[in-house]
Amino acid sequence: FLADFDSSSVANNPLLQYSLQNAEVSKANIGVEKSEFLPKFSISYDKLKYNDISGFSAYQAGISIPLWFLPQKSRVKAAKADAMVAENQYLEQKAITESRVSQLLKSLEKTQKTLDYYQKGALILAEEQITTAELASKEGEIDYVNYITILNSAIRIKQNHLQFINQFNQQTIELQYQLGNL
After folding, report:
1. Is the pLDDT of residue 1 over 70?
2. Taking the domains of the chain in order of start, what are their residue ranges?
3. Among 18, 33, 72, 136, who pairs with 141 as Cys (CB 3.0-4.6 Å)?
4. If you classify domain 2-178 with CATH, what class do you get?
């Protein structure tokens, strides 16, 4: 089960995708700001009426050339700085996500070993304790207090097993989320 997961396959993580998208938007914004250096061309057509007489057509062509480059240079520098910040935030989020996935994989492996212990030994022992306690109680070999003590011990083992199952499931859900599978 755990062999299917890889800590480097976090590309589908929603937070990571959001950070990547922000970085891409910031990079595209650099191009938008640079395009403000270029001249703008415009062409327009208008059909006019004057005293209910139509037929007056107007054509207009224009070019606008930026005269002051200094403010735009500053905006381009700011866009580049924003892009660097967004890229660094993406890389930081990626490192955090990969680290969390690695931690979850180790934790899941540990929890799986504990569950194996319970399934291969502790639960069998708990059932044997219950069976032995019931038999000994019927035969009169143990009193009621010892019977309850043995049952409590067996029930605690079963409760611990259920807690580890819950822990395993919670870790699996979080791992699936970190990998972007939810």
Report:
1. no
2. 2-178
3. 136
4. mainly alpha
